[in-house]
Design goal:
Elements: H1 3-21, E1 30-34, H2 40-49, E2 53-56, H3 59-73, E3 80-83, H4 92-98, E4 101-105, H5 108-121, E5 125-132, E6 142-143, H6 151-166, E7 170-176, H7 185-206, E8 213-215, H8 222-227, E9 232-235, H9 237-240
Parallel strand pairs: 1-2, 1-9, 2-3, 3-4, 4-5, 5-6, 5-7, 7-8
Helix pairs in contact: 3-4, 4-5
Bound molecules: pyridoxal-5'-phosphate.
């Protein structure tokens, strides 16, 4: 087996084990292989190893790579392209045109622009709201640092969720979060737990029939995220190794 295959199988095995320890069904967890900075050849190799969900965090990179991969594998390869990065408003059309799922919606302005373009394209984009419960990693994400106590924050999150659910080009799939880079496991786990509770609360508030999905967990913390209910883990380095810089 190649290094990539060996690493991929190790990640799959770890997801399975962690899910079982948490009394969860491993099939409820989608592994999004984060291929940002890696060339198309790496994606093709990953596809051959069995991966079907790919994550990119720069709109231009998605725009460039998807057609090249489709030229090799066809448009019906079964690949699902996840856009996981923060989106700037002038790049919404790229994501509307090239992504199958969007993980990091954090502003209504972006939501409106995306939806308009998607409507023109006759598509609906499954979308996660990015929320920021730790306040530490960056400014991205809807402020939810004190959502349990702050009626103002809860109101904002609810309005955001309801607005997104009503937009014709988007379909609200879940909630996404990023844990702080360097923190103790207990702290990271609390971030994931608070995010899961927020998703449960939002489902209830909005009267949604199905639970909201939870996109959380990366190379350093995906086991903690799975223990707290992650349905989508976004993993790059554990599969592909350290990234080359642009
Ligand atoms: C890069 C990235 C990941 C993957 O990070 P790794 O540490 O390589 O697993 C996950 N989510 C987002 C939003 C990213 O930008």
């Amino acid at each position: 087996m190649s290094t990539l295959e060996t690493r991929y199988h190790a990640v799959l095995q770890s997801i399975q084990q962690t899910a079982q320890q948490a009394k969860r069904n491993p099939d409820d967890i989608t592994l999004v292989a984060v291929t940002k900075t890696w060339p198309v050849e790496t994606i093709l190799e990953a596809y051959a190893a069995g991966m079907r969900h790919f994550g990119e965090n720069r709109a231009e990179e998605l725009e460039e790579k998807r057609p090249l991969v489709e030229a090799e594998l066809g448009a019906d390869s079964g690949i699902v392209w996840h856009f996981i990065g923060t989106l700037q408003s002038r790049k919404t059309s790229l994501v509307a045109d090239f992504a199958d799922t969007f993980h990091a919606l954090d502003r209504l302005k972006i939501a409106n622009r995306l939806s308009k373009r998607l409507e023109e394209n006759g598509r609906r984009l499954p979308t996660f709201l990015e929320i920021n419960v730790s306040g530490e990693i960056s400014k991205s994400g809807v402020n939810a640092t004190d959502w349990e106590n702050s009626a103002t924050q809860r109101q904002e999150i609810r309005t955001f969720g309801e607005t997104v659910a009503r937009l014709p080009g988007l379909s609200l799939q879940g909630v996404m979060t990023m844990a702080p880079w360097e923190a103790e496991p207990d702290f990271i786990r609390t971030v994931f737990k608070r995010t899961r509770r927020l998703a449960e609360w939002l489902q209830e508030e909005m009267g949604l029939e199905r639970p909201l999905a939870l996109s959380m967990g990366m190379t350093n913390d995906y086991q903690l995220a799975i223990a707290e209910g992650a349905t989508h883990v976004r993993i790059g380095r554990a599969i592909f190794g350290e990234r080359q810089t642009h």
